[in-house]
């Protein structure tokens, strides 16, 4: 009788997500594609909320979805996510578990402990701009370090400044969210008259409010400036923007977003960012000169006077916009520098290589 060959069954990668927000998807979507290219099985355990369901169709088809029904009661919600994690972890060998966000990490880590076959799996955590994590991690952060860090845990962050929060963890990897290649390949043709573009894929009432104010202030000049808001916006902000003469364009996917960026003269980010500023990275990849509010996430992307301008006041923003409108050579120089900087950091191939190396899949 021939002896059966002992063949190692490769484990799968499981992502645990609370809400599949735009920021989380900007990392998870490309991550699922990278894991699929490696040939490894993968699954995503997540809360099923209608406002984020449009992302599901964009996840790679190889990703098995374990959708947890949305609950009004937070205790029931996280209990249901815990149970879904336990079920998924018990279904087969695990190569790695990746928690996206603070609560998914706290809940999912308990599931790792509860399932004997999952206890030795490498665990990864990405904060995705969690407001509960301060510069010293804080009380919840210390709990997270105890729960996740002690279980062979590593951090995968997509902002350089986040790395400092995990200096005492076993390891920390910087894997910045990528920008789709079509933004780099975009053929831009500026609009006939000055056009300022801004917006994003998530609702930002404060950003819409400031843009409306700037539009009103600049409408009184002789520059004939137009403003476009690209992306989702709440109804109150839509009315405010329209009243200020700002055109609002809902977009569905990267191609439509890139097409709306193409005629812009200047990209504007008038408020501080929390988390990775993907829309700014996309505007840079498209070759737009950028005028942004001076904050940590923006400083990580923009070099003052080289790839854009960092501003601390509304007056500075107006002055920088006016300077760029008056000087086509300056717009071209800053736009080329912005695109080169984005290409060096946010290419899809670099992302996949770094992530798979972190997962030990390359």
From TrEMBL:
Pfam families, alphabetized: Glyco_trans_1_4
User: Which keywords appear in this protein's UniProt record, sorted alphabetically?
Assistant: Glycosyltransferase, Transferase
Which EC numbers characterise this protein's activity in its record?
2.4.-.-
Q: Name one GO molecular function term.
A: glycosyltransferase activity
Q: InterPro entries from the entry? A: Glycosyltransferase_grp1 (IPR050194)
Q: What class of enzyme is it?
A: transferase
Q: Which PANTHER family has this protein been placed in?
A: SULFOQUINOVOSYL TRANSFERASE SQD2 (PTHR45947:SF3)
What protein does this entry describe?
Glycosyltransferase
- The organism of origin for this protein: Roseateles agri
